[in-house]
Specification:
3-stranded antiparallel β-sheet; 6-stranded mixed β-sheet; 8 helices; Rossmann fold; alpha/beta
Length: about 250
Amino acid sequence: MGQRQLDQDRIRIDRVSKHFTLRHTRAVKEIVVKGLQGRRKELSEQFTALRDVSLTVGEGEAIALLGRNGSGKSTLLKLISGVMGADEGSIAVRGNVAGLIDVGAGFHPDLTGRENIFLNGAILGMSEAKIHQEFDRIVAFSEIEEFIDTEVKFYSSGMFLRLAFAVAVHTDPDIFLVDEILAVGDEPFQHKCLDRIRELRDEGKCLVIVSHDLDMVSKFTERGIVLERGRMIHDGPIGEAVALLRQRSEG
């Protein structure tokens, strides 16, 4: 496949690395002793979640980020979303980004469901007129009409998820990100969410999905990125990526 022009890409990731500082909890006595000995730096260490990752995602592509726990999948998704920044390298994103990475991020517990639709919609880039236009559809999709004027701090986790997903999928995103969120909630609503994700894909939206459900991602995506200990070890057809991951998991 030939090289794509930048204006044909929705996402471009160039040699990105991300590091975290892990701080260890020690007994107070040990901390004091090591502090007096000038060895406080031993109480923390650096962990590299992503190392030198490069890839592009084109218009209308649906890709899966695969790997074991701790491989860097969710970190990469958060970098794409802008929730956090890269320590090295660059990420360019073209278009509106929405999705489910952190359930209810942007929701205020003391506000009602109605108020949070307007708050979260605005955070996701919707105009007030657009939110008014989509409001009834958002509420109907969430299936929590009778609780829409209740403060969300009284919602169950399932109700919270329904409202968060309903807002996200009605922002008309160019890029939609999903991180294992469909593991939460009852089965009928999961199917409803999957149907909506399928619609977004069929509308030509760019999808980036993180999931351990290999059968599901095989149906929704055509390309798989396999990460291992922060490094990208495979980028190719989803069938090959799934087979590689299963092989390494069995090994």
